[in-house]
Amino acid sequence: MKGTNLGEFEELVLLTIAALISDAYSVAICDELEKYTGRAAKLGVVHAVLNRLEEKGLVKSRMGEATNARGGKRKRYYEVTHTGKVALTRSKEVREALWRIIPGFNLEGTV
User: Fold this and answer.
1) pTM recorded for the entire structure
2) Most exposed residue of 12, 49, 103, 107, measured as fewest CB within 10 angstroms of its CB?
């Protein structure tokens, strides 16, 4: 297993997979990323990140059933592994710790 440090886009993809639960396949991931970030996510880039996350052991994939709507093709579904959950939690903790030490950026309780 490679390192578990996450790049920004890797983190976004991993969070999206976690949010989609059992419906996390590449097109749905792209759609959710665009919905929440306002940026178009290219399918090829998402596929490369999914492969990298799988190599790192942060996600695992399985093939769905073939469907007539897809011309008999099967979707590859992704889910976050325990190692992926640990990496996401660690990333969140680091970000929160850094936000807390920035002077003037503690916006809790403000509207």
Assistant:
1) 0.82
2) 103
